[in-house]
């Protein structure tokens, strides 16, 4: 179209080209990260020690709850993270962690692991990110609710990497049941898999609602998470409260 000699590009065409360009950039970023991670050594040789994030129980008498996320092993780490919960009751001399793993199921053991030990360890060489930290008054009661929720998880003997139920399904379930007000990252694939075949539930933070078809297609609107669209387990979204885009593989782009 031309107006007095000036060529006008239809808005739909411009938006389409921009969307295609963004999709290409996103794909290349994920592909580059996947190639880099796939070339790493064997997982058994990777770091599993403490990242030095969690407080020392010997000098921290108050109750503490923390939630961590770290990229999973190999090329899959370009897209997703493993999440877990760490708790330390008042006066406790050690940390207790709660998570779900697939290798436990493959060895004939329960998927849910409750262990005493390192709360903030590297996950097969990937440095953990602290997602949640709450301390002090009322946290002992929160820890009791976390423990009860973890032990009532409906998929205690099941693990499916995609679309779930997996480690992120577990943490999202415990967050809802215990009232953690937790905003899981967009890279936590499986967080939108709702337990017991439900099509609707509270968001993991408990500050909104989500609708999901077996973790494959859904939408979430919540104060804490913002607006998220789940397509085949991949999250696209926007957080207006803490301005940021949420993108598959990349995670949050903007305010933390």
The shape, in one word, is globular
**First-last Cα distance:** 43 Å
The main sheet comes to: 7 strands, antiparallel
Sheet/helix structural class: alpha+beta
Task: Give the tally of β-strands.
Answer: 14
Number of helices: 4
Question: In percent, how helical is the residue content?
Answer: 10-25%
The average pLDDT score comes to 89
Low-pLDDT runs:
none
Radius of gyration, Cα only, in angstroms?
A: 20 Å
Query: Secondary-structure element order, as H and E?
Result: EEHEEEHEEHHEEEEEEE
Strand order of the largest sheet: 8-9-10-11-12-13-14
Percentage beta strand: 25-35%
Write the layout of secondary structure elements.
Layout: E1 2-3, E2 6-7, H1 11-38, E3 64-71, E4 81-88, E5 96-100, H2 102-106, E6 112-116, E7 129-135, H3 139-151, H4 167-178, E8 200-202, E9 208-213, E10 217-222, E11 226-231, E12 234-239, E13 244-247, E14 251-254
Antiparallel strand pairs: 1-2, 3-4, 3-7, 4-5, 5-6, 8-9, 9-10, 10-11, 11-12, 12-13, 13-14
Write a short abstract of this structure:
The chain has 4 helices and 14 strands.
Structure description:
With 256 residues, the chain is of the alpha+beta class. Strands 8-9-10-11-12-13-14 form a seven-stranded antiparallel beta sheet, with no helix packed on it. A five-stranded antiparallel beta sheet has the order 6-5-4-3-7. A two-stranded antiparallel sheet has the order 1-2. Strand 11 and strand 12 form a beta hairpin. It is globular, with a radius of gyration of 20 Å. It starts with a strand and ends with a strand.
Notable traits:
4 helices, 28% strand, globular, 5-stranded antiparallel β-sheet, alpha+beta, 256 residues
